[in-house]
Design goal:
single chain; 71 residues; alpha+beta
């Protein structure tokens, strides 16, 4: 967790609180952390898409050979 000065207050990673008025806090993600999270999200999404396509190919082969497939 970064050691940012006031008005930041650490929260569960990757979040921070920022004081916008006395005793009023907003929860934020810093741009660098957001970019890393977005990159990881896109990798996971691509992997999930590949798995879905692979499963669809298996189902297509089963259907081609007349095997029953529960949809």
């Amino acid at each position: 967790m970064s050691d940012l000065p006031w008005p930041f207050r650490p929260d569960k990673e990757p979040y921070h609180f920022v004081e916008i008025a006395p005793n009023e806090w907003v929860r934020v993600v810093l741009a660098g952390d957001y970019n890393l999270l977005l990159e990881e999200h896109l990798k996971l999404r691509a992997a999930a898409r590949e798995q879905i396509e692979a499963a669809q190919e298996v189902l297509d082969v089963w259907r081609h050979y007349g095997r029953p497939v529960a949809d």
